[in-house]
Write a structure and sequence with these properties.
2 domains, extended
């Protein structure tokens, strides 16, 4: 009888309600069970961590894309060459801009302006991207600067758009790249780069956005700065990417400095380049 009651119950509270009833009826000798609470696991946060490229994985993707888009080595005709170069530049831009796939798919050349800025003696080619409210899921327009202006310039020379209204990520500028075509090439590139457990980890095109946000947060940008670039809220970035907190704490713990003869204190942190061609 007990097994019949418990078998039909679901949840700790329901099971104990059954036990209390049976105890009152004199059918069991304990008034309730004590259940040990299991530690809470933030599945969403863990899923995001697993679905994000590591730096070495991204480097492998960038390296493989060079051979993937090589015209002569792959005996590609003009259309196939353009499509593979489109995919190459899509991935490079996505990893630098953090655009949502839907936003990037609908981006037009009039939405992008290339700017050159001198920072600490070095010239940076940046892209000013304007996201129209009708192409983003949050229905709010935004504008931001990001790295990767050279990728837009290089792709424009290959695509040769006839109008500022042409789609940026399109073979001919007129037809929007289909999700099916994009996903097929994306997974070919990821597989060719030697990434493992891709399906189990949930590696998808959106992983490029995860990668960009991860890189920007670890580069020292505030959650609000990253949120403004990516068209989301600061709490959303902090809650979704709080697995990065331990890495930031480690950085703080091992931070050091050197003192020059002139009495200047110069912070010393290990660093690596954010993006590679």
């Amino acid at each position: 009888m007990l097994s019949e009651w418990v078998g039909g119950c679901s949840g700790i509270h329901t099971i104990n309600a059954c036990i209390k009833y049976l105890f009152k009826q004199g059918l069991v000798h304990v008034p309730a069970f004590e259940f040990r609470k299991l530690p809470k696991i933030d599945r969403k946060n863990e899923d995001v961590r697993r679905a994000t490229f590591s730096n070495s994985e991204y480097d492998a993707i960038v390296k493989h894309m060079r051979s993937y888009s090589a015209r002569k080595a792959n005996n590609l005709d003009d259309k196939a060459y353009k499509l593979r170069m489109l995919m190459r530049h899509w991935i490079l831009v996505a990893a630098n801009s953090g655009l949502r796939p839907g936003e990037q798919r609908q981006l037009r050349w009039r939405d992008v302006t290339i700017e050159r800025h001198a920072v600490e003696g070095n010239e940076h080619t940046l892209a000013r991207i304007r996201i129209r409210k009708e192409i983003t899921k949050v229905r709010l327009s935004r504008q931001f600067l990001c790295r990767g202006g050279t990728y837009f310039e290089r792709w424009r020379k290959i695509q040769q758009p006839s109008s500022s209204d042409d789609f940026v990520f399109s073979v001919d500028g007129k037809e929007e790249l289909s999700k099916r075509t994009f996903n097929a090439h994306f997974h070919k590139i990821v597989d060719g780069a030697g990434l493992i457990d891709v399906k189990q980890r949930g590696i998808v095109p959106y992983s490029l956005r995860h990668f960009m946000i991860t890189q920007r947060v670890l580069s020292g940008l505030s959650y609000s700065d990253v949120a403004e670039m990516c068209g989301t809220s600061s709490p959303q970035v902090e809650n979704t990417y709080n697995h990065l907190n331990d890495e930031r704490r480690l950085t703080s713990a091992v931070a050091s400095y050197v003192r020059t003869k002139d009495g200047l204190v110069i912070p010393v942190l290990s660093s690596r380049s954010y993006i590679k061609l």
